[in-house]
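Q: Predict the assembly, please.
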Amino acid sequence: MTFLSYLISGISLGSIYAIIALGYTMVYGIAKMLNFAHGDVIMVGGYMSFIAMINFGWPPLLAVLFAIVVCTVLGILIEQLAYKPLRSAPPLAVLITAIGVSYFLQNAALLIFSANPKSYSSVIPFDALRLFNGQLVISGTTIVTIIVCIVIIIALNTIVNKTKIGKAMRAVSEDKDAAQLMGISVNKTISVTFAIGSALAAVAGVLLCSAYPILMPTTGAMPGIKAFTAAVFGGIGSIPGAFLGGILLGIIEILGKAYISTQLSDAIVFAVLIIILLVKPTGLLGKKVLVKV
Amino acid sequence: MKRNFYLTFVVALVLCLAMLAGCADKGKEKTDSTKADAPAEKETEAAEDKEAEEAEKSGDTAPIKLGGIGPISGAAAVYGIAVQNGAQIAVDEINALGGMQFELNFQDDEHDAEKSVNAYNVLKDWGMQVLVGTVTTGPCLDVAAESYNDRIFTLTPSASSPKVVEGKDNVFQMCFSDLNQGIASAQYIQEKELAKKVAIIYNNADAYSTGIYEKFISEAETRNLEVVSTTTFTDDTANDFSVQLTEAQKAGADLVFLPIYYQPASLILAQAKEMDYEPTFFGVDGMDGILTLENFDTELAEGVMLLTPFVADATDDLTVAFVEKYDELYGEVPNQFAADGYDSVYAIYEALKDKDVTAETSASDLCDLLIDVFSGGEFEFNGLTGDNMTWSETGEVAKSPKGMIIENGVYVGMD
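A: Predicted assembly structure:
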């Protein structure tokens, strides 16, 4: 029973990593860049929903929508201002710019919201599910996170594979120049990708803060890095890979803590990552998936 | 290409503006402290600043230069800002009294040892005579080594590791050392029979938390306090505590000792409630601040006990006045760090009050003088964080912690 409850904690943590990883993987798959500011957009999403709920007194659902809108606009803005001018620059320049944007967002948040942490109120109204006389507790946040995660994956797959803009995304991902020659607006496609990625970040921010209710300017940083690891783990660029990587990472982290050592939990996670990459350099699902998104 | 240029320009402009915005805010707080930076501007500044002029008339001329270092930005900023604000209030109060004048120049170190040493060098160039800092333990270790070589008296408001003062005759602490907190906690729990079985969750990536834990565990052993579960986390894994709490619960712990800061503690309280685990939670001074956490459900903290030197809800005149003033100036309830900053400045003031010192006294002379006073055995200081504080020759402070319990969302003394 204890094992089961650890497993559920792992899945709960992992599904949050998975949603964040989906944002990384989307942007990497299409724009071929690592958007390290993704973690900080999550933090902005957290703050926006917090302000909407606490300061404006809006209902949770409206607050989530507000966070999504703000983050989407922010994502497009970042892309237009920071990344677009560097479209033809070497990847390293873009990478460093992304790190710069990350620090910029963190410090802007520090200036606006101050360093004092805030306690987040969960947006999820359901009580925890208690099974086997309360021996197994599954929190409402866990259930909602997993459902949201699955809905997002289905939606993303549909967008990428079934819609016109999805076709354009796949084309841009294959070959930017050729796509442009075919009459696809590369800039517009990448902007849409960023908009989707940032909207996902907002959702991830709300769920992250609901599960672990503390909000600081650095809230998004570490989960962002872990989720990036998850994306690489599952094969960066692959949507199912990000999901699988996220869930596995969460489970390994919790089980490692529980059965090996609480001191070594991160060491275990990253050791597993290294082993997987040695055996399969493209990540778990890196090659199998034909459609690279 | 041209468009790219414009966009780059816009980005550069935005970044510059953001930086200026940051400076403007800090500048406001520090108008008092930075004015001696440029002697040429002194005339105009003096004319503007009537208060300073009056103060100059009333007694001594130039102020004694106090340096301060702490994280004003970054993850630990909450502590640095609190110390800076508290110290600034003390400086303003002392200057308003007339007589000896102080000037505080507080530098940011982002809780980074290298930046802290840079800040220290900046302050040295500025002409710092006494250092109030640094705020956090890690950077303080490096800075204290420098100040020891330079013979600059150092009183850290809140760097609590015993290593900070070890082997350095010029470094003193205003806060409890980790040593004392660990021992006092174990003593308190055993003497008051608060628990039969104790679990500990601590942050093994943090010198503060580890330091308290080590002392606690050895004291618990000598006192036959049964520790049934010891688990850890790091700053990177400070999200999910289900494993640690499950272990404590399975081991049958009726008290969980949390020698950690209040941010992770708030998560532990929330997660324990979710899994229906209701032990007594016992914290140390890092737990202070949990009630001021914005939007925190104080019901979660009901029954939490902690040992702390400062409580904002205390009713003595000094605390009430300080809390009022702090709230008026900064719109917040001061935490223990603000009180430590305030006390540090006052301790230096008390020590120097009757002595023949001016702005011309060299830092090393001041250092010798202050060492004599602080470790002379006769110096007793009454402040916000305790009465009759004395200092040992090694630099550790002796004061008694207050046992507090949270009831109905406020701290109540347990004794």
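Chain B has 13 helices and 15 strands. Chain B has two domains: 61-176+323-398, 179-308.
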